[in-house]
């Protein structure tokens, strides 16, 4: 049995700049999230409350990612974690998604109650906070967009390009989340304006329901994705098939058993049991230097 590679480094030095940008976005979003939920409760605006909790979902996602990076670095050399600490983000994300789903159901329940028994809303104050929230979202989007644009500069080599492509996808996901927050802020402002100027009081709880639905859909997707990582579902069929083809292509060896699972963001571990006259060096050559494979164990029988 031979271990071809063993690395628990899921955060390269080149990612530090984007991690700092993400931390700033987390700080801005968390501050605005608290303000929107608090002011929404005081003013009686379900649209503002839903917007605040929708911002909370994405603040949580970005915060969990930043925390996972920090913990992964802190415990990288801890022998108690056989395959590293890359699953910390998935574990925290799964627990958080369950809580957010419960929050979404609570917002939906309260919004329906507001339809049946309308309450007064302080539209002017709620609109001011919603407008500030929109501004925070736009600033956050600019930070993330600039980070993604700058990230790929000054790096060379195929492996660096692959790692940066993966990280850019993470930043792109965060960027789209922030844009979605901006859209819910626009909807909240529109609902509050319609209530104040047109007397459409029903629009505020309607937007609350829309916000609850968005949070619930997002939470369900996060539960699905994080559960797949925690349960070691085969994460990448294309990578799995590619490894099989590269090993078995010459026809001198057969894969008797093969397992591939995710151990961190964009990083996988594999165990391959082989039957045939082949050496570990030859298997290393066939698999090739793939930056996605943090740990590969080959058993030759």
From TrEMBL:
One of its GO terms (biological process) is intracellular zinc ion homeostasis. Keywords: Ion transport, Membrane, Transmembrane, Transmembrane helix, Transport. It comes from the Bacteria. Its main location: membrane. One of its GO terms (cellular component) is membrane. It is a multi-pass membrane protein. It is found in: Membrane. It holds the Pfam family Cation_efflux. InterPro entries: Cation_efflux, Cation_efflux_TM, Cation_efflux_TMD_sf, Msc2-like. Residues 26-231 form the Cation efflux protein transmembrane domain. Coiled coil: none annotated. The chain crosses the membrane at residues 24-49, 55-76, 88-107, 127-144, 174-200, 206-223. GO terms for molecular function: zinc ion transmembrane transporter activity. This is Cobalt-zinc-cadmium resistance protein CzcD. It comes from uncultured Sphingomonas sp.
């Amino acid at each position: 049995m031979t271990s071809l590679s063993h690395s628990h480094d899921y955060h390269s030095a080149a990612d530090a700049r984007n991690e700092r940008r993400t931390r700033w976005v987390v700080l801005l979003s968390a501050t605005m999230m608290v303000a929107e939920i608090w002011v929404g409760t005081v003013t009686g605006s379900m649209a503002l409350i839903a917007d605040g909790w929708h911002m909370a979902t994405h603040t949580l996602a970005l915060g969990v990612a930043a925390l996972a990076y920090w913990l992964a670095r802190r415990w990288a050399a801890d022998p108690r974690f056989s395959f590293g600490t890359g699953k910390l983000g998935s574990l925290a994300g799964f627990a958080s998604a369950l809580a957010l789903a419960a929050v979404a159901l609570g917002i939906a329940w309260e919004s329906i109650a507001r339809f049946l028994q309308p309450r007064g809303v302080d539209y002017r104050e709620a609109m001011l906070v919603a407008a500030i929230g929109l501004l925070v979202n736009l600033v956050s989007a600019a930070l993330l967009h600039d980070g993604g644009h700058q990230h790929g500069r000054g790096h060379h080599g195929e492996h660096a390009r692959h790692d940066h492509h993966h990280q850019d996808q993470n930043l792109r996901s965060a960027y789209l989340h922030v844009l979605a927050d901006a859209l819910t802020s626009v909807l909240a402002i529109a609902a509050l304006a319609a209530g104040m100027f047109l007397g459409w009081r029903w629009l505020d709880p309607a937007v609350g329901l829309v916000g609850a639905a968005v949070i619930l859909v997002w939470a369900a997707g996060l539960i699905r994705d994080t559960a797949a990582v925690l349960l070691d579902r085969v994460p990448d069929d294309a990578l799995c098939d590619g490894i099989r083809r590269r090993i078995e292509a010459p026809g001198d060896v057969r894969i008797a058993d093969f397992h591939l699972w995710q151990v961190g963001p964009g990083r996988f571990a594999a165990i391959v049991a082989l039957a045939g006259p082949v050496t570990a060096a030859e298997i290393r050559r066939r698999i090739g230097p793939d930056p996605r494979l943090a740990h590969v164990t080959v058993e030759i029988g």
